[in-house]
């Protein structure tokens, strides 16, 4: 499993980079690690998943989406976590479209071309929340 998971020091952001295969086991590991890293942190917590280099199959993607919808801690349906994606492939669009459906949590997932763009979005969103 080739996944980098980093908690940024200056922002409530978990950066995840999938380097090879996007698998159910890998995604479950990300959910678990996200929960561990953010224990005691106030919401919102942002997780930016860069899957530009990741490969998967349709069958594996269906398993991943099924696991993501369960409301499990660390998953995209965890109310503390705001999921963002980096990349532009068929799997990102599929995941976003499925997760927006009510039966999958109705989660809105922004997509960005780069990690820098996603982090800029997080900074702007935190600033907006601060002044709301």
Chart the SSEs and their pairings.
Elements (H helix, E strand, L loop, with lengths): L2 E5 L5 E6 L5 H14 L7 E6 L7 H11 L12 E6 L3 H10 L11 E2 L2 H16 L2
Parallel strand pairs: 2-3, 3-4, 4-5
Antiparallel strand pairs: 1-2
Observed structural traits:
five-stranded mixed beta sheet; 4 helices; 132 residues
Report on the structure:
By secondary structure, this protein is α/β, with parallel strands linked by helices. Helix content is 39%, strand content 19%. It has 4 helices and 5 strands. It has helices at 24-37, 58-68, 90-99, 115-130; strands at residues 3-7, 13-18, 45-50, 81-86, 111-112. It has a 5-stranded mixed beta sheet with strand order 1-2-3-4-5. α2 runs parallel beside α3 (90-99). The longest helix is centred in the last third of the chain and has 16 residues, at 115-130. The chain is globular and about 45 Å long. The N and C termini lie far apart (41 Å).
So how many helices? 4
Q: What are the secondary-structure elements, in order, as H or E?
A: EEHEHEHEH
Low-pLDDT segments: none
Q: Care to count the β-strands? A: 5
- Report, as a whole number of angstroms, the end-to-end distance: 41 Å
Give the C-alpha Rg.
14 Å
Shape: globular
State the share of residues found in helices, binned by percent: 25-40%
Overall mean confidence score, pLDDT: 90
The main pleated sheet reads as:
5 strands, mixed
Structural class: alpha/beta
Please indicate the percent range of residues in DSSP E strands (runs of 2 or more): 15-25%
């Amino acid at each position: 499993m080739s996944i980098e998971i980093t908690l940024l020091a200056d922002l409530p952001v978990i950066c995840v980079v999938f380097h090879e295969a996007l698998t159910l086991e890998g995604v479950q590991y990300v959910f678990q690690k996200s929960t561990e890293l953010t224990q005691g942190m106030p919401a919102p917590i942002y997780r930016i998943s860069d899957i530009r280099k990741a490969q998967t199959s349709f069958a594996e993607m269906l398993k991943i989406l099924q696991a993501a919808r369960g409301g499990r801690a660390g998953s995209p349906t965890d109310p503390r976590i705001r999921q963002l994606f980096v990349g532009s492939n068929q799997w990102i669009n599929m995941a976003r479209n499925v997760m927006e459906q009510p039966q999958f949590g109705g989660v809105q997932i922004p997509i960005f071309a780069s990690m820098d763009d996603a982090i800029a979005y997080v900074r702007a969103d935190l600033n907006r929340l601060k002044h709301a």
